[in-house]
């Protein structure tokens, strides 16, 4: 069997006496859309920062794209794309300038960078806006542009932290179409969200409750397991169970 692109084994992060992520263990396959779900404060962002090589685990281990996140964080960073929950492009630069700037950071050089910039603008139908400042674009277009820039260098994995926050339902669906397209190209998509309906778009989902991984499976199987009509119901059942100490 092919080696998982992400492997976490009892991955834990403590801040003093507070345990932000508590011994989480999971694998993610290549080309999978993996949803990391949970309420705000559940430990999703902390876990993602460790997987991206941005934060050192307190204990446990994780390998991303074949590299240990604690001992080879720079190698991890070279093989991933990342889009934060806050808009990650420079609003005072034009669309074309942002693409060129981040392409350079990712190590792309002309003529490859020029070709990729033209392809990206055509794919998003933003040729007419190439010279507009990003700050003038609607939020949905900003998010789609930020995601496209995050995979400009064809990374093995792209990490997305609450990418659809504040975006209307129609634009959210369009954004997810971009994720499907990326997965079809072999890019693994690791996405955190607190929108439970977005779980339906993922191949598999894990549900975080108070820093712990409460469940992990396909959306269909999770609903069957918990006798739920929706992922909202699954999450509610798990959250109530955690409150009761089950």
Automatic annotation (TrEMBL):
<protein>
    <submittedName>
        <fullName>ABC transporter ATP-binding protein</fullName>
    </submittedName>
</protein>
<keyword id="KW-0547">Nucleotide-binding</keyword>
<keyword id="KW-0067">ATP-binding</keyword>
<dbReference type="Pfam" id="PF00005">
    <property type="entry name" value="ABC_tran"/>
</dbReference>
<dbReference type="GO" id="GO:0005524">
    <property type="term" value="F:ATP binding"/>
</dbReference>
<feature type="domain" description="ABC transporter">
    <location>
        <begin position="6"/>
        <end position="235"/>
    </location>
</feature>
<dbReference type="InterPro" id="IPR003439">
    <property type="entry name" value="ABC_transporter-like_ATP-bd"/>
</dbReference>
<dbReference type="GO" id="GO:0016887">
    <property type="term" value="F:ATP hydrolysis activity"/>
</dbReference>
<dbReference type="InterPro" id="IPR003593">
    <property type="entry name" value="AAA+_ATPase"/>
</dbReference>
<dbReference type="InterPro" id="IPR027417">
    <property type="entry name" value="P-loop_NTPase"/>
</dbReference>
């Amino acid at each position: 069997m092919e080696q998982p692109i992400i492997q976490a084994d009892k991955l834990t992060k403590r801040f003093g006496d507070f345990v932000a992520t508590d011994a989480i263990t999971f694998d993610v396959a290549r080309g999978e859309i993996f949803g990391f779900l949970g309420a705000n404060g559940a430990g999703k962002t902390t876990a993602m920062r460790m997987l991206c090589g941005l934060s050192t685990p307190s204990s446990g281990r994780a390998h991303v794209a074949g590299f240990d996140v604690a001992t080879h964080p720079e190698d991890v960073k070279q093989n991933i794309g990342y889009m934060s929950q806050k808009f990650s492009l420079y609003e005072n630069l034009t669309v074309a300038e942002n693409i060129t700037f981040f392409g350079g950071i990712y190590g792309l050089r002309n003529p490859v960078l020029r070709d990729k910039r033209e392809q990206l603008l055509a794919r998003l139908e933003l040729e007419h806006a190439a010279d507009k400042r990003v700050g003038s674009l609607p939020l949905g277009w900003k998010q789609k542009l930020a995601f496209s820039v995050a995979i400009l260098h064809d990374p093995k994995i792209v990490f997305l932290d609450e990418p659809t926050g504040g975006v209307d339902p129609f634009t959210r669906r369009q954004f997810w179409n971009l994720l499907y397209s990326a997965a079809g190209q072999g890019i693994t998509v690791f996405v955190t969200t607190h929108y439970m309906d977005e779980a339906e778009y993922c191949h598999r989902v894990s549900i975080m409750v108070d820093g712990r991984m409460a469940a992990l499976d396909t959306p269909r199987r999770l609903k069957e397991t918990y006798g739920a009509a929706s992922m909202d119901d699954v999450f509610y059942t798990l959250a109530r169970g955690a409150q009761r100490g089950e």
